[in-house]
Amino acid sequence: MGLLDEAKTLKETIVKDRRTIHQHAEFGMDLPVTVAYVKKRLKEMGYEPEDCGKSGVVATVGKPGKCILLRADMDALPMKEETGLPYSSETDWTHSCGHDAHTAMLLGAAQILKNHEAELNGTVKLMFQPAEELLAGAKDMVENGVLENPKVDAAIGIHIDSQVPVGQVCYAPKYASASADVYVIHVQGKGGHGAMPELSIDPLLTACYINIALQELNAREVSGRDMAVITTGKMISGTKENIIADTARMEGTIRTLDREVLANVKKRLEEIAKGVGAAFRCKVEVEWPFGCGPNTNDVPFQEEISGYAKDLIGSENMVLSEPTMGSEDFSFVSQKVPGMFMWMGARMEDDSQVYPLHHNRMILNEESFPIGSAMHAHCAMEWLKNNG
Q1: Dihedral pair phi/psi, residue 130, rounded to 5°
Q2: Residue 200 carries which DSSP code?
Q3: pLDDT band for position 252 (50/70/90)?
Q4: 1 has a pLDDT exceeding 80
Q5: Mean per-residue pLDDT, 296-317
Q6: Are 286 and 273 in contact (CB under 8 A)?
Q7: Which of 123, 245, 266, 372 is the most buried (most CB within 10 A)?
C-alpha cells in the first residue's frame, strides 16, 4: 500500500482530530486545550512530546542522523464563526485560516511515520506551534531551541487553501510569501471644542494626511520591479462628534518580498509620518510591535521536495504559482535552514460554499486532509532516504 492510500485509511481519524480542534478554537499563545489534545494524541501513537516555548509542542520519530522538520500551526483567529457547521467553534475564536486542519494533517503524518519508523534513514521532527496569526509562535519556538537537539537540517510547511481544488498543491519559486511588519503611528495633537478648531491642533486630520502621504511610497519610491503593500487598516480618534481629540492612532502593515525594500520602506514611513506631523504641528511617534521577514523557499531543496511531491500526486497536480503577499511566520524557520512552503487545495465543490481564508464562513473540503498527511510523511521519508 502506498502512503497516499495509507493516509486515506486514516481519514476518519484525521477528520475527527480536526473537528475536535475546530470546536475548541484558541487564540495566540494561550492554547491549553489544543496543546493538551495534541500531546494526548501523540502519546497514543507512542511519541514522547515535549513542550517548547510558551505553547509549542515537539516530537521526534526515527533514528540518529539527518533531521527534517515538519511544521503545523495550531492557533485560530479572533472572530465568531458563521458557517453553521455541526462542529462550529464553541469559543470566541474561529479556525478560519485552516490551522486546525494543519494540526490534524500533521497528526496524521505522525501516525504514518510511526508506522514506518524502522524505514526512516534519520529523524523527523514534528513542530506544532502557537501564535502564527501574531507572527510570534515560530519565533518563540526557534528561540527556545526547536531547531536544535537534534539539529534540524531542512524544513517543510504546508498551508491549506480554500480556493484551490482538492488534489492540487501550489508552490512559488524562491519567495513563498511576503514579509509583514506591523506599524503603530501615534499622533499627539491638542484637543478642544469642535466649534473653535483654531484653538486646537487636530490629530485626526493629521492622521488622514499621513495615510494619504504613505501612498507615495508605492507610487514613487518602490521600483516597478519590486512589490510592497502598505495598508493602514485601523484609525482611532475621538469620543464625540463635537470634540476635537487630543490624540489619534493608526495601525497597519507593510508587506514586501525583499528585505532591502522592507528596510527602506520602514525608514521612509517614519520620516513621512513625522514630517507630515510636524507640518500640522503634531508630535508623531512610530512603533513596530511585531513582524516577520519574507518566507523564502530554498531553491535546490524546493526542487528536490517538489520532485517527491510529484511522485506522490502527479506532476500535473504540482502547480507553480505566484508568491502571496500574505505573510507566514514559517519564515523564522526558513531563515535558519533550507525550507519549502506549499499550499494545499481544499476547495468545496459547491461554489456557494467557497470563501477565502480569514472569512468567518470559510469551509474546507475534508477530502484534502489525507493528501496533506501523506505529503508530509512521503516528502520527509524520501528526503531522509536520499540525504540521510
Answers
A1: -90, 175
A2: S
A3: very high
A4: no
A5: 96
A6: yes
A7: 372
Task: Please name which of 35, 28, 164, 27 lies closest in space to residue 89, comparing C-alpha atoms.
Answer: 27
Q: Which helix (H) or strand (E) holds 277?
A: helix 259-279
Residue 11 has pLDDT above 90, yes or no: yes
Report the C-alpha gap between 29 and 76 in whole angstroms: 10
DSSP 331: H
State the angle between helix axes of 11-23 and 99-115 in degrees (0 to 180), rounded to the nearest 10. Answer: 140
Asked whether the predicted pLDDT for residue 189 surpasses 80, the reply is yes
What cell was used for 337?
535552514
- Residue 218 near residue 323 (C-beta atoms within 8 A): no
Which helix (H) or strand (E) segment holds residue 44: the answer is: helix 32-45
Q: Quick one: pLDDT at residue 224?
A: 85
In degrees rounded to 5, what are phi and psi of residue 110?
A: -60, -40
Kind plus residue range of the DSSP H or E element containing 284 = strand 283-287
Q: pTM above 0.85?
A: yes
Least Cα distance to 178 among 339, 296, 297 occurs for 296
Q: What mean pLDDT, rounded, does the chain reach?
A: 96
**Grid-cell match 486545550, residue found:** 33
pLDDT exceeding 90 applies to what percent of the chain? 94
Whole-angstrom distance, CA of residue 215 vs CA of residue 347: 34
Q: For residues 112 and 61, give the distance between their C-alpha atoms in angstroms, rounded to a whole number.
A: 11
For residues 122 and 67, the answer to whether their CB atoms sit within 8 Å is yes
Asked if 312 and 169 count as a contact pair (C-beta separation under 8 A), the reply is no
Q: What burial class does residue 373 get, using C-beta atoms within 10 Å of its C-beta: 0-12 exposed, 13-18 middle, 19+ buried?
A: buried
